[in-house]
Write a structure and sequence with these properties.
phosphatidylinositol binding; 29 helices; 2 domains; coiled coil; LEC1-like; PX-associated; about 5% strand; mainly alpha; about 60% helix; LEC1-like_C
Length: about 750
């Protein structure tokens, strides 16, 4: 049994390897120089494979051919994007380990990884063709919605459903006039999108902080000026005015540089950079205030200790990584390792150590934000502005078609209305007079998307009806993308694509139960391993097969629960209910009275008024006001994959001595839920009650769930990664090499 792999074991092996390889490649971008041998569209050497083959394959096969993006000049990639990425790498942004919390960048990078690992598997393994003669779909059945999405993907790759969809969309903007398959897919996508929003903004410890960032940025966007600009009839004048609004730099230095009186490198910021800078500067202000409070505390670490921590903040990446490794192996906190390396006394009270760790976290966070502002807003030459100009120039033909086909001003108003409602729905309010917190559920986000879905339907209809040429460009691109997921040997009966453990078709599961076009190469890699290693890996793959089955079954169960449960707002008279039950109006006022009414760049007075707007706060300093969050997650096996990556994040010991924590530890979750000002955003009472496959509740006919059953715990796959990780990367590099 240990000499070869069964099809199901091959599928499990591919699942493990792509899951960790995708995130490992994302992590590679921390290091300066990773783009030197990346391959197209960056630096390439003939017959030299990319060090990050999975990500490079996605970019080359899908992004580079997008209409508009395929027309950007070579400098867009090799100079502008390249230099921005290099500058961010050289900035040496902080790690979650050093701060004792899960950072926002870690949260977002693991989320991205959990999503793109699916197209990575499809790109190299292919997507099997199935034959499902059943074209009836019950929109209240979780199994039918999953089956509908699976069949839609199959018909995108091997059929003509994309042509049919565009043709029907040109005829009507009413969802009910589409076929059963499209309505099932629409419902499945809507529920899963709501689930992702809910998990990101409500169940993630950093959710309310991320929401605050969006809210603060939203306050600075001059929607009225954008709408007035987009109403200009002459397309050339409209694009010129739009560029001035977004990219014009209104400062004394920019004017004196332009007329030749000065040659200052930093000639100010445009609107885009002003938004980035202002939002992050608000954070810096709160962090500096928090540092000042620490320094005034009676238990504050000495100036000598603070100076050593400041030196660590400015240290290079190699030095910091060395101290992190020592911290992990010696079971001492990062604070103690920094002090020991600097030759400073490390004996301190636990309260002083806690303040020292908070001080280090604040200083690292301040530096991160200042570096991002420096790279994005104060670099010379200004690659960000040049990048946007290149994009607009490349997309000018597409903008012309969109301008003629769609009312872009109304589209901006629709986006503004959606963002405004989303911010209201996702904001968890403090407990009411009864002491209870109204926590938005997945159903509330579903209701939010239903409220605004017609805006998308209208936009797609207008574009397909009035912009047939540009629609064909994107349709051809979409069909080209879909065709790249075809397998060399593609046909499999629908019954073979079902999960044997549950008897239901899982959208997220690989079909059939093999590794597709990678089945043979993976078997060869496996066969080259020593016999003892093969035996050990087999003992991991068998429970992994069951774990993946149960993970998908859990997702289907949660989908059924969502479909048969009412949103939170339906049972309350809260502001949440008012937002979700109110009707959209055709004319919507601007969210900010200070937005300029003319299509021109905001004056310095307007910019100053924007900067002085009070930023949103996500924290509650009074413990009684901290919202207590207890909410079930929605469907999506990718959520479990996301949580797996996030939970494995190493975090320094929060006490002076002790083993490193993981992001899943309760103390880390609580600390990660703090805002930059030190106040708590939320308190998790029960977290992810039914997310992982350890909490699977099998579905029953007619929806709903029945009692829990014994389930498979996710196996430790370190042996698999150590034995096959590097060889798997080489395999992907060979298959993706085309230059």
């Amino acid at each position: 049994m240990a000499d070869t792999l069964t099809p199901a074991q091959s599928s499990a092996l591919l699942d493990i390897l792509t899951h960790y390889e995708t995130y490992a490649e994302i992590r590679e971008f921390r290091r300066s120089g990773v783009l030197d041998h990346y391959g197209p569209p960056f630096t390439k050497e003939a017959k030299t494979p990319s060090p990050t083959p999975a990500l490079q394959a996605l970019v080359s096969r899908f992004l580079l051919d997008i209409p508009g993006l395929r027309d950007v000049p070579e400098d867009f990639w090799t100079v502008q994007i390249h230099n921005i990425i290099e500058a961010m790498q050289e900035a040496n942004l902080s790690e979650s380990y050093d701060k004792g919390t899960v950072g926002s960048r870690r949260t977002l990078s693991t989320a991205v990884s959990s999503l793109i690992e699916y197209p990575v598997r499809g790109t190299f393994g292919g997507f099997a063709e199935i034959d499902d003669p059943n074209d009836n779909y019950d929109l209240q059945s979780a199994d039918d919605l999953s089956r509908g999405f699976r069949n839609f993907v199959d018909q995108c790759i091997y059929g003509t459903v994309l042509d049919d969809l565009v043709k029907k969309a040109a005829e009507t903007d009413k969802l009910e006039e589409h076929g059963k398959l499209i309505k099932a897919v629409h419902e499945f996508v809507l529920v899963n999108l709501a689930s992702f929003m809910h998990y990101t903004l409500i169940l993630s410890p950093k959710g309310q902080y991320l929401l605050k960032l969006v809210d603060n940025a939203n306050k600075l966007i001059p929607y009225m000026a954008l709408r007035q600009t987009l109403k200009i009839g002459n397309i050339a004048t409209m694009i010129s005015a739009l560029m001035k609004l977004i990219l014009a730099k209104m400062s004394v230095a920019s004017i004196t540089n332009w007329i030749g009186l000065t040659a200052t490198e930093d000639d100010g910021m445009n609107l885009l950079q002003q938004v980035i800078s202002t939002v992050l500067q608000w954070d810096v202000r709160d962090l500096e205030s928090r540092v000042a409070k620490i320094e005034k505390d009676k238990q504050c670490p000495s100036k000598e200790i603070r100076a050593a921590l400041d030196d660590y903040v400015q240290a290079n990446a190699e030095k910091q990584e060395e101290l992190r490794k020592h911290s992990q192996t010696s079971s001492n906190s990062i604070v103690l390792m920094v002090l020991a390396d600097a030759g400073k006394p490390s004996d301190m009270k636990e309260e002083t150590h806690k303040l020292a760790l908070d001080y280090l976290a604040c200083k690292l966070s301040i530096r991160d934000r200042m570096e991002i502002v420096r790279v994005g807003c104060h670099s010379h030459p200004d690659h960000l502005t040049a990048m946007v100009r290149s994009l607009v120039n490349a997309y000018e033909p597409i903008i012309r078609h969109f301008h003629n086909a769609v009312d872009l001003s109304d589209t901006v108003a629709d986006c503004q209305a959606f963002i405004t409602d989303m911010l209201k729905v996702a904001r968890i309010q403090p407990p009411g007079k009864d002491g209870k917190t109204v926590v938005p559920s997945v159903g509330d986000f579903i209701q939010l998307l239903r409220k605004h879905q017609y805006s998308s339907h209208k936009f797609i209809h207008q574009l397909c009806k009035n912009g047939k040429e540009v629609t064909k460009w994107y349709l051809d691109w979409a069909k080209s993308v879909a065709s790249k997921f075809q397998r060399e040997s593609s046909f499999v009966d629908a019954s073979e694509s079902q999960n044997p453990s549950e008897g239901n078709t899982s959208t997220d599961a690989e079909s059939p139960r093999d590794a597709g076009d990678l089945t043979k190469p993976l078997k060869e890699l496996f066969g080259a391993l020593p016999a003892d290693t093969r035996k050990e890996i087999i003992s991991i793959l068998d429970p992994m097969v069951l774990y993946v089955d149960e993970m998908h079954a859990s997702s289907t169960t949660r989908l059924a629960d969502v479909l048969h449960s009412a949103p939170t707002a339906a049972n309350t008279n809260s502001s949440l209910s008012k937002v979700l039950t109110s009707k959209l109006t055709l004319s919507r006022p601007s969210s900010r009275a200070s937005s300029p009414a003319r299509a021109a760049a905001p004056s310095s007075k307007d910019a100053q008024a924007q900067t002085q707007n009070a930023p949103s706060s996500a924290s509650h300093n009074n413990p009684s006001e901290v919202p207590k969050v207890s909410s079930d997650p929605g469907p999506g096996a990718y959520l479990a994959r996301w949580q797996d990556l996030l939970d494995s994040t190493p975090i320094t010991a929060l006490t002076a001595h002790g083993k490193p924590h993981h992001a899943s530890d309760k103390v880390v979750v609580e600390k990660s839920a703090e805002d930059v000002d030190g106040g708590k955003t939320v308190e998790f009472t029960t977290r992810q009650k039914t997310l992982d496959s350890q909490k699977v509740k099998p579905s029953v006919p007619g929806g709903g769930t029945q009692g829990k059953k014994n389930v498979t715990k996710k196996p430790d796959v370190k042996v698999v990664i150590d034995a096959l990780g590097q060889d798997f990367r080489k395999l992907l590099a060979e298959k993706s090499l085309y230059w």
